[in-house]
């Protein structure tokens, strides 16, 4: 079904557009969710002569400024101690360099810091307060990421006995009371239930930009799962999980329940399918089905684009999440286009 929808879109683009096979044209900007301003910013950055890295940095950075859906940037998704912490990555598909930060505190422009990890260190991933110190050295302001909104989300959560939360097999019973918790000697295994909490606040901007010459760059930025246990890092800053870029094959980015998705390296897998010539929509679908086989009820979606500018997306169908919206900008259109796929 999702394939059919995207095929119709591609046919429409083919009719509308002057160039490219299968409705594809370069450059292309594609990002998760209906984060239109991010798409516009990335596109404008390219038009003004910026590189693909600049476009991804500025595009995802726009969401950090806009606090997209409260799930990117400062003032969203307070953790169990009420603090907002950020995860971001950027990947250069020409050099295969990755810069990433995780559990970044007190610095708003997480993807900007991730870019500096590429440019000013030989590392790939910096975390926690040490990443903040690095950011300050790189000239980023050290600020409070708390807002009235994040405080009120936090106090509402405290007032509802810290529900929902991410603990299990602890005392007191984490499904009824707040911590601090101690571990239960007897560990029981239960089937994972659908996490409703992120479905309505989306969760991550993931972006793939492919330049005119076929350079692929990907990136992500998020403030992670709301009420996460401090120290938790999701899929977003992990190369191959949150996003992946390889200028010889394509780019992909994932959004959803990172704790589940990062175990499958979905972005890496999607790029590898495209390397074998798989259509981008099908590549995304195959990645979703692979996870489905193990965790039928996971919340998640993937966007995929190959080096000739064809793109697609797929998502896992669960109650409350049956369609996934994403944004595309290419020379075949005069403004960012919101697209929808039916989940499989
Ligand atoms: C806490 O929840 C109760 C109802 O369970 C409500 O009466 C009270 O106003 C809430 N307090 C705050 C500070 O939200
Ligand atoms: C990208 O995908 C399109 C649509 O499936 C396909 O026609 C094209 O050959 C692909 N490009 C590459 C480089 O594989």
UniProtKB/TrEMBL annotation:
GO terms for cellular component: lysosome. Residues 1-21 form the signal peptide. It is an enzyme of class 3 (hydrolase). It holds the Pfam family Asparaginase_2. It comes from the Eukaryota. GO terms for biological process: proteolysis. Cleaves the GlcNAc-Asn bond which joins oligosaccharides to the peptide of asparagine-linked glycoproteins. SUPFAM superfamilies: N-terminal nucleophile aminohydrolases (Ntn hydrolases). This is N(4)-(Beta-N-acetylglucosaminyl)-L-asparaginase. Gene3D superfamilies: (Glycosyl)asparaginase. Its EC number is 3.5.1.26. Belongs to the Ntn-hydrolase family. Keywords: Autocatalytic cleavage, Hydrolase, Protease, Signal. The record marks 203-204 as: Cleavage. It catalyses: N(4)-(beta-N-acetyl-D-glucosaminyl)-L-asparagine + H2O = N-acetyl-beta-D-glucosaminylamine + L-aspartate + H(+). GO terms for molecular function: N4-(beta-N-acetylglucosaminyl)-L-asparaginase activity; peptidase activity. It comes from Phasianus colchicus. Substrate binds at residues 232-235, 255-258. InterPro entries: Ntn_hydrolases_N, Peptidase_T2. The active site is at residue 204.
């Amino acid at each position: 079904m999702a394939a059919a929808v995207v095929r119709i879109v591609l046919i429409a683009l083919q009719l509308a557009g002057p160039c490219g096979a299968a409705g594809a044209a370069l450059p292309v900007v594609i990002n998760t969710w209906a984060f239109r301003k991010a798409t516009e910013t990335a596109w404008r950055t390219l038009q003004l002569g910026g590189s693909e890295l600049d476009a991804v940095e500025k595009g995802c950075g726009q969401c950090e400024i806009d606090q997209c859906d409260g799930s990117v940037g400062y003032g969203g998704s307070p953790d169990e101690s009420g603090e907002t912490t950020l995860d971001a990555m950027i990947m250069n598909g020409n050099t295969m360099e990755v810069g990433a930060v995780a559990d970044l505190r007190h610095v708003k422009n997480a993807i900007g810091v991730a870019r500096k990890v590429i440019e000013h260190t030989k590392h790939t991933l910096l975390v926690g307060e040490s990443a903040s110190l690095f950011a300050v050295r790189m000239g980023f302001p050290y600020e409070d990421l708390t807002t009235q909104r994040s405080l009120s989300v936090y106090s509402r959560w405290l007032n509802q006995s810290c529900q929902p939360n991410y603990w299990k097999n602890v005392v007191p019973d984490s499904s009824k009371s707040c911590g601090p918790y101690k571990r239960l000697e007897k560990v029981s295994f239960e089937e994972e239930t659908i996490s409703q909490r992120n479905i309505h606040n989306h969760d991550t901007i993931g972006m793939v930009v492919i330049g005119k010459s076929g350079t692929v760059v990907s990136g992500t930025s998020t403030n992670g799962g709301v009420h996460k246990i401090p120290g938790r890092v999701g899929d977003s800053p992990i190369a191959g999980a949150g996003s992946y870029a390889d200028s010889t094959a394509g780019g992909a980015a994932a959004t959803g329940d990172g704790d589940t998705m990062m175990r499958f390296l979905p972005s890496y897998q999607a790029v590898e399918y495209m390397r074998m010539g798989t259509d981008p929509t099908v590549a995304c679908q195959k990645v979703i089905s692979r996870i489905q086989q193990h965790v039928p009820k996971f919340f998640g979606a993937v966007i995929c684009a190959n080096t000739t500018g064809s793109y697609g997306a797929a998502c896992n169908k669960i109650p409350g999440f049956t369609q996934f919206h994403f944004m595309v900008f290419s020379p075949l259109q005069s403004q960012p286009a919101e697209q929808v796929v039916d989940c499989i």
